[in-house]
Amino acid sequence: MTSHAPDIVTLDNLSQTITPWNPQGESQLYAIVDMGSNGIRFSITSLAPPFTRLLRPIYSTRAAISLFDALKNTPKGLVFLPETIAAVSKTLERFHQLAVRHGVPARHITILATEAMRRADNASEMLEAISSATDGLRVSILEPAVETLFGAVMGSRSGLVGVEGGALFLDLGGGSVQMTWVDTSKPNYEVDAARAGVSLPFGAARLIRVLQEQPADVQVSEISKLQTGMQQAYANLCSNFPALNALKGSHDEGPRVNVFMCGGGFRGYGSMLMHQDPVSPYPIPYTNGYTAPGTLFSKVEHMRRVNEEHDSRIFGLSKRRRKQFPAIATVIDALLATVPNIGNVTFCGGSNRQGALMMKLPFEIRECNPLDILAGVTPDEKPVFDAVLNTLRSALPAEVDFSSMPNVLTPGLDSLFVRDIWTRQGHDSDNNSSFALHHAITRDAEVPGLSHTGRALLALSASARWGGILGPLDSQLQQSLSALLESQHLDAPFWASYIGAVAGLIAMVIPIIPTTAEEVENAISIRAHLKQAEDKRERIVLTIRVASANTAGVSLEDLADRVEKTAKKNGGKKPRYKITAQVSLSP
């Protein structure tokens, strides 16, 4: 008889249980089942080069089977009932068939299980049923540290460019919550974070059962255990990571602790924050990449009341998630009591599935900037892109500090922006201004690295490249995107539009996408500095020299106006800068 002893995945045996990605493999499709406590999720992902780092989704579905709710106390212990085992094995049989029909090799199909399977006393019966239904596939049961690695660390990491300097990473599932500290600039950061991290048995499904079914004294006791566990976990992280310990000591007087969250429970809280965001209507329709300031994040009681009193549907929150919301809020309360100086909180779309795939990849692919992969700049194109970017950056006054200001010329976003400057030139400029706003929001859904802030920057800059003339509905969208950026930095919307206007100026001078860097460098040069104006508004003075050969059909006045009008409108608000563009001809 076949043995169905569980395959326990630990940090120590991880390299033996995770098959590395093979770039020469006949198939680049990978299927993963995540048997979570709140539901069973299945996805097929392409790791085909050169887009491997993007973890491109091919197929995804979910079965609404809560393994945690399905665990029953019986004289034989905490077990899955026969009907649950039958439902789960039938579900995984279907998932297996879907993988086979997509052409996924058996060796590329992985089944992961977490807290509920760890707790079940008859897990072996479930494993045997799954194996029988899936032609012998085995289930990998993740120990808590590996669940932290796949979920809180690499699941979140899969959707990010990088987190240099470090941040708290948390994952809230149905059965447990994980917390750790991640600094992607450190060697071996992922395993160090997983080893130092702590998994607490207070997932949303488990905790809501306590809050709804247990007497008051038990509720108080369990919440106290959660709070104590969170405090001990944080103290342990502070002792392991000096950077976090320094932030803990600074409290309100210094830098704050930034947080990244994944898992369905935390994403549910993110959906509630978006519903209550001061930017209303909020312009981007998904939590992946959403960032909330600590001031909004900490309004837990207000979010509780909204969940209780709001009768209509809240986008992104299912009925089940709303029922679990009191438990989610209780975990947030425990976090805030432990870490009072929270800065920005970013919600991530990754999960154990994406984290497991990331761990298959070689370091150089895993840690590259996914936006560079998305832009796909070839070696032949790179000198041209660099020349265009140098020209755009030369239009930024040296007197302005852009180090803490979101802008579209940051690595990754910059190439995406340049890629779009010379596209859609057969369409009307006003249509393109509208298209640019919407395209930045909807393009490449769930792609790693493209945050809400990044999408807003691309939207405003690309729209301004075409003149930014918009109809009433699009003007409202532009204002919402501007407000989103203002929450990061008051001047960010102006500079996004300004950079877009400069790009439009370059496209007037060079109407066809250049093929050499010299073509850009010989056509236009820009210098910029700030000057104090009489009305106390600072003035940007641009000195623009354009080659005579590049001015056919274009007046110098039109070139100057292309940039100067940026100071006249900005999402309905008057910017604090004036602009003077001095355009002259060069031989």
Question: Strand portion, in percent?
Answer: 15-25%
Q: Predict the CATH topology of the largest domain.
A: Hypothetical protein af1432
Helix content: 40-55%
- For the record, give the distance between the C-alpha atoms at the N and C termini, rounded to a whole number: 87 Å
State mean pLDDT (0 to 100 scale). Answer: 94
Low-pLDDT sequence parts: none
Q: Main beta sheet, described? A: 6 strands, mixed
Rg from alpha-carbon coordinates: 26 Å
By DSSP, the count of extended strands is: 17
- CATH architecture tag of the largest domain: Orthogonal Bundle
CATH homologous superfamily title of the largest domain? Hypothetical protein af1432
Count of helical segments?
25
What is the CATH C level class of the largest domain, in words?
Answer: Mainly Alpha
Derived from helix and strand composition plus strand pairing, the structural class reads alpha/beta
Order of the strands making up the biggest sheet: 1-8-7-2-3-4
Q: What global shape is seen?
A: globular
Number of domains: 3
GO biological process, one term: regulation of transcription by RNA polymerase II
Protein name: Retrograde regulation 2
Domain Ppx/GppA phosphatase N-terminal: 56-362
Organism: Fusarium mexicanum
